[in-house]
């Protein structure tokens, strides 16, 4: 049974409207969004892209993702931490990415902060983010029921800022938590609900 906010595709699978029309978004929804990301580089990439998405559509970021990966050395934190002023100017001249100086500088700062986490008691970036997994997950039946923040996203935001990260507000961190599997906000009735293995359907 599907609700009015789910669209059944030509493959017979139910998806939310945002993931039904655009083939790129449909592929992302079907294969990646909400699946657990537990490696440092993968988490750094998602954190970086969520920061660049702030104020823009996710479709814009997803279309530019290959260019972002090329521009930021595959989101290798060690490589990005080594970026200097010439790299900043190179990035600001790269039409393939979002040319926002504050976000570019934040990504470099976040790479430094990611490396610093390794030597602390919190583990790497992925382990640190996963330590904020909530005890339960939302079970939305409509898009209006999907939260935009949570107590855990506020706590994660605060903890990351204390460790030198930037562009990690609570709304951005909730989007990250959705993207990497800490919460499951797939609508009840979607074919992806419960697919991460982290939460039951």
From TrEMBL:
Matching InterPro entries: Adenine_glyco, DNA-3mA_glycosylase, DNA_glycosylase
Cross-referenced SUPFAM superfamilies: DNA-glycosylase
Gene3D superfamilies: Hypothetical protein, domain 2 (1.10.340.30)
Domain of life: Bacteria
PANTHER family linked to this entry: DNA-3-METHYLADENINE GLYCOSYLASE 1 (PTHR30037), DNA-3-METHYLADENINE GLYCOSYLASE I (PTHR30037:SF4)
Record-given protein name: DNA-3-methyladenine glycosylase I
